Amino acid sequence: MTSPAPLRPTRRAALAGTLAALATTGCDAVTSEPSTDPTASGSRSEESTDSPADPDEALVADVRADLAAASVLVTSAVRARPGLTDELAPFATLHARHLRALESDRPRGRTPVRGDATAVRATVRTHETRLQAALAEAAVVADSGPLAALFASMSAAVAQQLAAGA
Fold it and tell me: What is the rounded distance in angstroms from the CA atom of residue 150 to the CA atom of residue 158?
């Protein structure tokens, strides 16, 4: 009677396990912890004041501003051309959800909207196309993986809404 051969993981299983391990450790695996060694130079308070600000902070502020501008434009367009409500309301809903996801309030205000319904529709769609590209770019440059995924999801949602209204 022969003994069974030892089970060996397949390449696919090994790769999946490695990816799962990397996903669970995330960026913590490369983040150095402050030294607790009393002989180390510098104190903890000095180390915390020298740490850089969140590298994604400016990016999030830019995306919030882009979303706020898009929200105000859509709201103004619907007020100026109520006949476009059914077509543009989904964009307003998207922007409100996206702003909430970024912990931002829905903006107030108006922007001038000129032209007939066709011109207003074109203006909004052009702005939404630019927003979609800006969100995709933000996803690429974000340092945080979860933030990049959020921006990519937002970009996809805007693209899907543009395609649905085409």
Answer: 12
Cα-atom radius of gyration of the chain, to the nearest Å? 24
d(CA 19, CA 110): 47
Residues of the chain with pLDDT under 50: 13-48
Which DSSP string corresponds to 38-56? TTSSS-HHHHHHHSPPPTT
Largest CA distance in the chain: 87
Please report how many Cα atoms fall inside a 13 Å half-sphere around the Cα of residue 46, on the Cβ side: 5
**H-run or E-run covering 42:** none
C-alpha dihedral sign at 126, 127, 128, 134: positive
Say how far apart CA 164 and CA 87 lie, in whole Å: 9
The model's pTM: 0.68
Rounded Cα gap, residues 18 and 166, in angstroms: 42
Could you tell me the residue ranges of all domains in the chain?
57-164
* Token digits of residue 114: 């000129």
- At residue 54, the pLDDT reads 85
- pLDDT confidence of residue 1: 56
Residue with tokens 């030294």: 35
pLDDT of residue 53: 77
